[in-house]
Each structure stands twice: as C-alpha cells, then as structure tokens.
C-alpha cells in the first residue's frame, strides 16, 4: 500500500520508532506491506489501531 503525505519522512521515522518498518520514497510517499508471514497480529494492531 502506498500513501502520499506532506510529512511522509517524519511519519516514517515515527513508525520505525514504534516497531513498524515502512519504506519511504522521496519526496512524500510511504509504502507499507502488511505480509502475514512477516507481520504479527500485534504489529497489525499498531499499524491499523485495532
């Protein structure tokens, strides 16, 4: 999933600080790939606020 946001770099840093590894693409793209084999239910909850 790709998201565009003017604060993408800051958001990526915050996600990393909370254990979620995003992929930042300049100038303002955040890419996330929730993969069942690599992502735990806890990580899904952090990402999607369950």
TrEMBL record:
One of its GO terms (molecular function) is pyridoxal phosphate binding. The keyword Membrane does not apply. Keywords: Pyridoxal phosphate. One of its GO terms (cellular component) is cytoplasm. Gene3D superfamilies: Aspartate Aminotransferase, domain 1. It comes from the Bacteria. The keyword Kinase does not apply. One of its GO terms (biological process) is NAD+ biosynthetic process. This is Kynureninase. It comes from Neobacillus bataviensis LMG 21833.
């Amino acid at each position: 999933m790709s998201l565009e946001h003017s604060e993408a770099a800051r958001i990526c840093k915050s996600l990393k600080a909370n254990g979620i590894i995003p992929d930042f693409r300049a100038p303002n793209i955040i890419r996330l790939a929730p993969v069942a084999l690599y992502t735990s239910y806890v990580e899904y909850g952090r990402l999607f606020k369950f």
